Amino acid sequence: DAGVTQSPTHLIKTRGQQVTLRCSPISGHKSVSWYQQVLGQGPQFIFQYYEKEERGRGNFPDRFSARQFPNYSSELNVNALLLGDSALYLCASSGQGRNQPQHFGDGTRLSIL
Amino acid sequence: AQKITQTQPGMFVQEKEAVTLDCTYDTSDPSYGLFWYKQPSSGEMIFLIYQGSYDQQNATEGRYSLNFQKARKSANLVISASQLGDSAMYFCAMRPTGEYGNKLVFGAGTILRVKS
Q1: 3-class DSSP state of A83
Q2: Confidence of residue A1 (pLDDT cuts 50, 70, 90)
Q3: Which of A29, B30, B73, B104 could be disulfide-bonded to B93 (CB atoms 3.0-4.6 Å)?
């Protein structure tokens, strides 16, 4: 079975631009979460979606938005990019149940020039 | 607010020996889940082991075991018989209760280097 897939793997943008990152969860998983991992730090929670509804939002500005589609795939959008948005963006999916782990994709490495 | 503390920025271990990676957490929630993930230099986050706050026994998964001491709020990862492929960053994470299951709070991580 395919794991969590993310695209693109790498992306270079300039300040002020907008970016869209994509994620396909493991088949059967309805929950998708997004994390930002700045170099040298642990991942920080951005969003969680379940059944196309936002179920959680981390401490990120409104420039960050996301959505989930009927097939449970998800997109993360970031507007007005800043240098500080340079990071590894990780998507994770999980099955139902409190003890279900999140399974992560390989991430999208975003560099802002 | 929930918080994870990993006090060891880096650890070295000799191949075939055991190593313990420390993790302490802070929460007022009665129910929570604790996870350990491995992140090699390539970047992917690999799930290793899970411990629920109400689980009576310490979790084990192959060479990985979790030393869970609830009163001390610690959830240390023990890796037995270390291998060169274990060299990676290791993150401890907590899922608070009340959330719909999926928000994880991560620690800063511990870099493990296995020496031959």
Answers
A1: helix
A2: low
A3: B104
**At CA B43, angle to CA B108 and CA A82, rounded to 5?**
75
How many angstroms separate the CA atoms of A23 and B4, rounded?
27
For residue B84, give the 3-state DSSP assignment.
helix
CB atoms under 10 Å from CB of B55, counted, come to: 15
Place of tokens 């928000």: B103
Helix (H, G, I), strand (E, B) or coil at B73: coil
Find chain A residues with C-beta within 8 A of B99's C-beta: 48, 55-56
Q: In this predicted model, what pLDDT tens digit does every residue of A4-52 receive, in sequence order?
A: 999 999 999 999 999 999 999 999 999 999 999 999 899 999 999 998 8
Among the partner residues A41, A88, A102, nearest to B102 by beta-carbon distance: A102
B108: closest CA of chain A, how far (Å): 5
> Nearest CA to CA, how far is A37 from chain B (Å)?
10
Q: How confident is the model at residue B29 (pLDDT cuts 50, 70, 90)?
A: confident
Contacts of A99 (CB under 8 A, 6+ apart): B33, B50, B52
